Amino acid sequence: MSDIRRAGAPYQYKGKEYELVMTVNVIDQIQETFDIHINEISKIIGDMKSRSFYKNIASIITIMLNEAIEIQNEENGEKNTPINEAEVRRYITNVNINDAFMAIANAYSLAFLMKEEDDIGENDPNRESGKSS
Q1: Which branch of life, at top level (predicted)?
Q2: Are 72 and 78 in contact, with CB atoms under 8 Å apart?
Q3: Count of CB atoms situated within 10 Å of the CB of 114
Q4: Cα-flanking dihedrals φ and ψ of residue 17, to 5°?
Q5: pLDDT of the residue at 44
Q6: What is the mean pLDDT of residues 101-108?
Q7: What string of DSSP letters covers 98-132?
Q8: pLDDT score for 112
Q9: Strands, DSSP E only, in 14-78?
Q10: Is 20 exposed, middle or buried (0-12, 13-18, 19+ CB in 10 A)?
Q11: Are 112 and 72 contacting, i.e. CB atoms less than 8 angstroms apart?
């Protein structure tokens, strides 16, 4: 099983930059909302021709934005209110749908797929080949 890191992908929403992260809260909500395992996320956001593509992207962005807001509130003592999905749906258009898709994909990659240099031991024979163990 992969490590889950709290590294975020930047995402602009209504002129403000948020750091979208794949926390356990986000993972649980995505799995519950779509009745999938998180490793199957591409099934719900990978088919741009699907009738539910925009809705799925908006749902996931809403989940991730609200987690980012909660984190900011906790860390900075702020009291920002959560965003509802209808607001996000009004914001996402054909012009910026790719930004939303890429933010989700990047947050997923940062959380599950990328290994940091520190994770690869100095004596690891795969270090030079670029492969991690």
Answers
A1: Bacteria
A2: yes
A3: 14
A4: -90, 135
A5: 93
A6: 95
A7: HHHHHHHHHHHIIIIIPPPGGGS-TT-TTTTTT--
A8: 82
A9: 16-20
A10: buried
A11: no
Q: Are 61 and 69 in contact (CB under 8 A)?
A: no
Structure tokens at 3: 């490590």
Q: Coil, strand or helix: which one is 66?
A: helix
Strand segments (E) across 1-133: 9-13, 16-20
How confident is the model over 66-90, as a mean pLDDT? 95
Give the whole-angstrom CA distance, residue 107 versus residue 23: 10
Residues 6+ apart with CB under 8 A from 35: none
Q: Looking up tokens 């519950």, which residue turns up?
A: 32
Tokens of 102: 């890429």
| pLDDT, tens digit, 9 for 90 and up, residues 48-60 | 899 999 999 999 9
